[in-house]
C-alpha cells in the first residue's frame, strides 16, 4: 500500500459511505477480530458499515463487542446481497482469493464497489482496487492497526477496537509464539493494552471456555495420532462418527493439529477432519522451519495459506485421503529431513 493509496483512501473515507466488510469462510479469531475492529473504526467516521461473514463462527469468539450484528451470508442471503450490491466500498479481510469467501464469491466478484484487501496470506489475487498485502505480518489484525495508524487515526482506537485487534493478533500468533511474531507485533499489542484491551480476560474467553465434550474429542484425536518418524511427520484423523459422538461444535477442533506438531523431532503435522455434510475432508497443515505447507497444500489439497500454516480439502473419503497423503510423503523426504 503506497502513500498515495493511503491518501486516496483517506479522501474516500472523508464522507459517509455504505461499507461492507467480509472475512473468510469459517472465520477464525483473526478474521472476526479484524473485521469487527475495522467496523468499530469506520462507525467513528459515520459510515454505514456491516460485517458479513460467509457463515457462522465459533462460540469462543462471541464475546467481541457487537459480534451479534454480524450477518451470516448462508442464512441471511437476501439482506446480504442487497448490502453488497449497494455498497460503495467492500473490504475483504484475512483472505486474498475470492473463493475463500465461499458462497459469497459470486456476489463479491459481481460487485462494482471499490474493493480494499487487507491480508497477510501468500500469493494474493489481483481483484482489489487497493491492496494492503504483506506476508510478513503476524495477522490481519496487526495490519488493521497499521491501516488505522497510516490514516492518522491511532487516537481513535478505543477499548472495543483494541479488544478485537488484540484477540486476532493473539490467536494468529499462537499467543505470540509463532515466528511471525515480531518486536513490532509486541509494540502494537502493548499499545492495544494501553488503549484498554484486557489481555487476561481475552485469553480466558478464547482458551478457557472449553466444554467437557471438546476435551473428550481432544482425547479421541490424540488416540488417533500417528507418527511417521522417517518423514518427521505426524497426523491426526477425526471421522464424522467420532465428531458426532462428542457432539462436535464449530471451533472444537481449533488447535488440535498443534499437538501433533509439538512432538519431539516432528516438523510437519496434519489433521484430517471428515465433513459428511459437505462431502469433503477438511485438512489443516502445520510445519516448522522452511517446509512450506502453503506450497504442499496448493500442490495436493486445493488449498493454501502461509509457509507454516495452511488449509485444504480432499473430495476422497477419509481413509483414501490419508493413504494418498502418506503416498505423497516420499517425494518430500529430503526436504523434511534437511530442515
Ligand atoms: P486452518 O488450518 O486453521 O483452517 O488454516 C490455516 C491457514 O490457512 C489460515 O491462515 C487460513 O486462512 C488458511 N487456509 C485455510 N484453508 C484454506 C484454503 O482452503 N485455501 C487457502 N488459500 N487458505 C486456506
Ligand atoms: Mn490471519
From TrEMBL:
<dbReference type="InterPro" id="IPR001667">
    <property type="entry name" value="DDH_dom"/>
</dbReference>
<dbReference type="Pfam" id="PF01368">
    <property type="entry name" value="DHH"/>
</dbReference>
<dbReference type="InterPro" id="IPR051319">
    <property type="entry name" value="Oligoribo/pAp-PDE_c-di-AMP_PDE"/>
</dbReference>
<dbReference type="GO" id="GO:0003676">
    <property type="term" value="F:nucleic acid binding"/>
</dbReference>
<dbReference type="InterPro" id="IPR003156">
    <property type="entry name" value="DHHA1_dom"/>
</dbReference>
<dbReference type="InterPro" id="IPR038763">
    <property type="entry name" value="DHH_sf"/>
</dbReference>
<dbReference type="Pfam" id="PF02272">
    <property type="entry name" value="DHHA1"/>
</dbReference>
<feature type="domain" description="DHHA1">
    <location>
        <begin position="245"/>
        <end position="319"/>
    </location>
</feature>
<protein>
    <submittedName>
        <fullName>Bifunctional oligoribonuclease/PAP phosphatase NrnA</fullName>
    </submittedName>
</protein>
<feature type="domain" description="DDH">
    <location>
        <begin position="18"/>
        <end position="169"/>
    </location>
</feature>
